[in-house]
Each structure stands twice: as structure tokens, then as C-alpha cells.
């Protein structure tokens, strides 16, 4: 696997916003939440706004297609992981920031749905590196030499695409309901070769079938619109605090990458329906009176469906240890870290042996 910093020739700013003081390209600064010039340190604030009417009608999605960001963009496609990164036309990219592959090419600038909101980076690159170092030190089963000998690659700040869905649901259900009742039963038991009668209360279940309607509104069902970062890794650095969403502005993109969505709006809604179905089943089971409730069938209508296309921040990189590459990510809003790391066979074997010794000692103590 090619490392993140090998063949690194990409200029990592997706927006070219000039500094009014020296004319250099400014970058978004997560610590000040504004733009900062890396050449003269001039800072410019960004006014955070939120459009409460950003929810878009799902049925009108075809009318919301736009050229992504603007005409001065290029889309770089990775043939290894499938990621599509949106960058300024003047940027040259020789590797993929998501998997490190050098097999990338410029793709056609197809129409797409522009992001409406994003959560700006609140964790800086330096803070992300510190959090990674603390994280790697905290793993007992990692080799002792790891924290001294690993080589960390270039860390990239990237906005990942997500969909959120709202929907009113109306479900017709059929359930099997069981209620407990008790009967007195007498049985024969044998003790020391002698038979005797024992009377006891035995619990039974009386079943019947019911049907009805269940209504529930869902708000902001969050669906990942990218397949480039492992779902398990992203789940481990969640949740993102969606209260931190702000209107999409080019200023927040300056100095960072953005991935184009690879899960379509319709595909995302199919996943959202799976999430809603699980919640609906739980809601039905909780609303029907009975000791046991088993859902037999549910038929759901989805109405008033709206969606948002949002971008969420992560720091992504990898590190080398004994000729192997391990990926890790940092939540760009909360700083939560997760990733893959090597395991020490000796530590695992030692722990297993220690547990077996303790079990053996306890056994001897009980047996004596």
C-alpha cells in the first residue's frame, strides 16, 4: 500500500482565497474558526450562519443538480478506492488522500447536489497529531516499541459527504401478542428412592393476533455517502454534534479536501429506510400492551420526505510499523481517535497464561 505522504505533490487548498495583506492564499484555521494567512499571519473572521430552510424536497431532487461548487473545480477519481475529491482547477494531485494510491485521474465534471451545510474543523492538524500520539500510547496490547519506532505519514483534513433525511411515516402492522397466565400442576418427584407429589405454579403463554397503525416522524437520519473510509472506523469516532452545522461557505474549505458523494441520494434513502424500520418495529413493540410482542408484518408509507447534503470533518492518515501500514482517523469536530494498530503476540499469550494460572489456583483452593 502506498503511504499518504509518498509522491505528495498536491496543494491541499480547495479554495483560493487571497490574503488582503500580502496576497498569499489563506487557509481556514480550526482554532480561531476564521481564515489565516500562513505567510503573514493575517486573520479574517468568518460569519457563521445557518439556513433553517436548507431542507430540500426529496421528490424534487432532480431539480437540485448543480455543477459541483463552481466551474473552476476539477474532480480527481481514485481507481483503487473509488474516492472522488473536489479540488480547484489549478491543483495538481499525484496521490489519493484517502488510500494513498497514485492511480488517480481527472474525471468528467458531472452535475451533482451541492452541500448545503457543514461542520467546520474545530481540531487543528497539530491537535490531531497530539491526540493520535496519546491514542497510540494507550493501547496495552500494542508492542512496546511501537510508540518509539512508528513513522507517521502526512495527515490530511477532509470533509466527508453525508445525507440526512426527515420523513413522516405511517405504518400498518400485524403483531403476535402473548400474555402470561399461571396454572397449578402436580407432578411426582423421587427423593432417596421414595416418590412424593409436588404442587407448583407453572407459567404459560396465551397468544392472540392484533393489527393496528403506528405513526412516527424521523428527523436527521444520518447516512454516510462515502465508501472510502471504513464504516467501522467512522462509527467509532462518532457521534458528530449536528448542532454544530453551519451554512456551507467556501472559506471553510480553504486548506482542506472534500470528497464527492459516491452513495446516491436514492441509495442513501434506502439505507435510511432500514434505520427507520428498526425504530418503527421497536416503537410498535413498545406501544402494544402484552407481556410478549412479536412483529409479524409491517407496511410503511413515507411522506413529506426531505433531505440535506452535508459535509463532516475528519483527519485521516496512516503510520508505518515493521513494513506494514495502519490507517487511523480523528474526528475533526470532537478529536475522538480510532484506527488499526499492530498487536503484540507475546502480550496476548502472557495474558492468556496468567488467566489460566489464576483459574488453576482458584480450582486448587476450591478443591482443597
Structure description:
- The chain contains six helices and 18 strands.
- It is flat, with a radius of gyration of 28 Å.
- Strand 1 (27-29) and strand 2 form a beta hairpin.
- The N and C termini lie far apart (57 Å).
- It is of the alpha+beta class and 368 residues long.
- It has helices at residues 125-137, 146-149, 231-237, 250-253, 265-287, 345-367, and strands at 27-29, 34-36, 43-45, 56-57, 65-67, 73-78, 84-88, 104-107, 111-113, 117-118, 151-152, 156-191, 194-224, 246-247, 257-259, 292-321, 324-331, 337-339.
- The protein has a domain at 27-163 and 223-262 and 312-367.
- Strands 4, 6, 7, 8, 10, 11, 12, 13, 14, 15, 16, 17 and 18 form a 13-stranded mixed β-sheet that branches. A three-stranded antiparallel β-sheet has the order 1-2-3. A two-stranded antiparallel sheet has the order 5-9.
SSE topology sketch:
Blueprint: E1 27-29, E2 34-36, E3 43-45, E4 56-57, E5 65-67, E6 73-78, E7 84-88, E8 104-107, E9 111-113, E10 117-118, H1 125-137, H2 146-149, E11 151-152, E12 156-191, E13 194-224, H3 231-237, E14 246-247, H4 250-253, E15 257-259, H5 265-287, E16 292-321, E17 324-331, E18 337-339, H6 345-367
Output the keywords.
368 residues, flat, alpha+beta, single chain, 6 helices, 40% strand, disordered N terminus, 20% helix, 13-stranded mixed β-sheet
